[in-house]
Amino acid sequence: MKKFICNPILPFDEYIPDPEVHVFGDRVYIYGSHDEFNGRMYCENDYVTWSAPVTDLSNWRYEGVIYKKSDHQSPVKMEKNNMYAPDVAKGPDGNYYLYYSIADSSVISVAKSDSPAGPFSYYGDVQSHSGHIYGESKEDYFEFDPAVLVDGDRVYLYLGSGQKANEKNGHPVVGLFVRELGSDMLTAKTEPEILMPADDDRSQPNFFEGASIRKFDDWYYLLYMATDLSGLHYMMSRYPDRDFEHKGLLHTTSSSQLVDERSMYERYIVENNHGSLEKINGKYYIFNHRHTNQSHFSRQVVGDKLEMSEDGTFHQAAYTSVGVRGEPFNELTHYPAAMTAVW
């Protein structure tokens, strides 16, 4: 066991944003996009993953590259060499499925592996029962930031955008929507259902991007980044495909609430949040990313403890330097500057 735990969770030279954190077996896996130090655009690198025992969130192991940009064999070609925020789920067949999109595309691609640590191989693109690949027709909704839930023998794919600016890609931006997939994890069984319509009002916590889905007990939880740049908000429902109600702000690392943009923008980036919930060894955690190097493009995974109320709602978690440790540092010693919350 390594005694020291802080934010960011992984080594200071690792840049994994958009974290989707999942427990598979007795280990916790961090999936996400892959930025670069001093990067000039989002998500420049191949997908990698790290894992740790559920009983020791200080002992992270690098599992290596799980999916390369060169592995993308879809007919939808990669023009800008960027793979965006992925999610991973264990299918009914026991295999693991990685969902992702590429720059300037509205197609959701899928890769497959027999291990949560990869490597993954290209499997196909999300399609209709007739074989139409969603995102290839102009009438198809803009599909972005996939999130996947396997709920018993049913599979749900959540995705979308609230940014009307994304209509530059040639598809209608309708907000956050869900469709059910078949047991092949690839073919849609239902038409899309809009859960939160697109609304660019920056004074309200409307859906911007970054959907993430979890089920705890009988509640479904949908996380998303809000249009007002306040951070990660969440909704709850008793159903996976309808009746979600907004419950509030969960976590923020890069919020207009943290800084005065007029005086600090050049020193601390007010930008996107994207993260996930997970229950690990009986405790709840929120995972997000922070911005570093005075850049939009060098983001690192962070995490903090969450407290659940009896009604299933969560108290907002503070963004801290102690992270998933959840306790203050008591030692009188030197600490690395890179664990400073605003860095």
UniProtKB/TrEMBL annotation:
Short name of one Pfam family for this protein? Glyco_hydro_43
Keywords tagged on the record? Carbohydrate metabolism, Glycosidase, Hydrolase, Polysaccharide degradation, Xylan degradation
Which CDD domains does the protein's record reference? GH43_XylA-like
Record-marked site positions (Important for catalytic activity, responsible for pKa modulation of the active site Glu and correct orientation of both the proton donor and substrate): 145
Q: Does the keyword rRNA processing apply?
A: no
Q: Name one GO molecular function term.
A: hydrolase activity, hydrolyzing O-glycosyl compounds
Enumerate the Gene3D superfamilies for this protein: Glycosyl hydrolase domain, family 43 (2.115.10.20)
What GO biological process terms does the UniProt entry carry, in alphabetical order? xylan catabolic process
Q: Does the keyword rRNA processing apply?
A: no
In terms of domain of life, where is this protein from? Bacteria
InterPro entries (alphabetical): Glyco_hydro_43, Glyco_hydro_beta-prop_sf, Glycosyl_Hydrlase_43_Enz
Family listed: Belongs to the glycosyl hydrolase 43 family.
For this entry, the protein name equals Glycosyl hydrolases family 43
Instruction: Write down the species.
Output: Alkalibacterium putridalgicola
